[in-house]
Amino acid sequence: MHFTAAFRYTPFADTPAFQPREYIAGPLSALLFPNRFFDTTLGTEQLFFYGAEKFTDIKNYEAAKPWFNYGTVAIDEAGNLAVEIHKVDGAVVYQETLRPS
User: Fold this and answer.
1) Taking the model in full, what pTM does it have?
2) Residue 75 DSSP SS3
């Protein structure tokens, strides 16, 4: 992947509470090729997208730098899982906390 995104899946119609997540961050050292199209076969819902509108918008390092990113994951003592996506300067652009169920 050459963009950042978060997805929620509802793959089983008879079990709608089962909703796995997918978080994508990076890569830090690759060209940027944003892809806004995704497969909806598994009841896919895009929660977040962070990337240039199209790769032809990126002409040099300075134009690419705003889209560099990284992710962090933390689990606290109560079992809450916190995901954050950060811009290269550390600013948070997306966050979600999942609680145990």
Assistant:
1) 0.83
2) strand
